[in-house]
Design a protein that fits this description.
Rossmann fold; binds hypoxanthine
């Protein structure tokens, strides 16, 4: 499909009609991390299904609502439930959430995800601030006709995971009760977990964690010059590191175990941005 600027504007116009203020911070919540949305005060919830030209979340643990309100005194717009390639969406469709944020006036975006730890110095329950990513499979979400209103055809990704936001997040880690690293996130399409051989390859390439989301959103943010903070929660050691099979349930359980600390951590970051 040939997307136009007006295609994206239609979603934003709908949301703006319900929520008349400009949110400063956009938040996208990953698998098992939806509790963070409970922190939002003075909230207005909009079902994804009601937003024209938006997508619908198909993962059971993802809620599928856009929540606008306040956290730590800041206006936020939060996606509780995100979209993944493995759900059957095209790369091109996966630009939709960040472009909505951009058109709503969002200045900084925070993305969280569940990830498998590749770095054997990491433990389940640790947090990794994404310093950079590796995406070697599939096309870019920015393929297709460029929409100049969002950004240039060719764009830089050097500071895609914004250094100043990572610095703030590292400072907030102190006293959070969380172990916070900085590292490289490697994208795999899923829905299957990676093979042990893929994980060994990922480690050789310099990955610290693997996951099935985030990079499409990060690239869309870089294209429209939106500062971004990526926060991965290590919900399991990646395939082949420990004995036993990987199960989706353990992802949710591990995220649940640190959800209170993580909620406070992200709240502190939002207050400081
Ligand atoms: N691999 C890919 N995505 C994930 C994993 C994993 O091990 N854990 C949580 N999301």
């Amino acid at each position: 499909m040939d997307y136009t600027f007006d295609y994206f504007k239609k979603s934003a116009d709908y949301v703006r009609q319900i929520v008349p203020y400009e949110p400063e911070i956009g938040i996208i919540l990953g698998s098992g991390l939806g509790n963070l949305a409970d922190e939002i005060e003075d909230r207005t919830e909009i079902d994804y299904a009601d937003i024209p030209n938006f997508l619908v979340s198909t993962v059971a643990s993802h809620r599928g609502t856009l929540i606008c309100g306040r956290i730590g005194g800041k206006r936020v717009v939060c996606m509780s439930g995100r979209f993944h390639l493995y759900e059957g969406y095209s790369y091109e469709q996966l630009v939709i959430p960040i472009r909505l944020f951009k058109l709503l006036g969002v200045k900084n975006t925070i993305i969280t995800n569940a990830a498998g730890a590749v770095n054997t110095d990491y433990s389940v329950g640790d947090v990794m601030l994404i310093r950079d990513h590796i995406k070697l499979n599939g096309e870019s979400p920015l393929c297709g006709k460029n929409i100049d209103e969002f950004g240039p055809r060719f764009f830089d990704t050097t500071d895609m995971y914004t250094a100043s936001l990572r610095k703030t997040a590292l400072e907030c880690a102190e006293g959070s009760g969380l172990t916070v690293h900085e590292g490289v996130y490697m994208f795999f399409t899923g829905p299957q977990f990676e093979t042990p051989a893929e994980i060994r390859a990922a480690r050789l390439l310099g990955a610290d964690a693997v996951g099935m989301s985030t990079v499409t959103e990060a690239l869309t943010a870089a294209h429209c010059s939106m500062p971004l903070l990526g926060i991965s929660v290590m919900t399991n050691m990646a395939a082949g590191i420990n004995d036993g099979k990987l199960m989706h349930e353990e992802v949710g359980e591990a995220a649940e175990r640190i959800s209170a600390e993580l909620q406070n951590y992200v709240k502190r970051i939002i207050e400081r941005i």
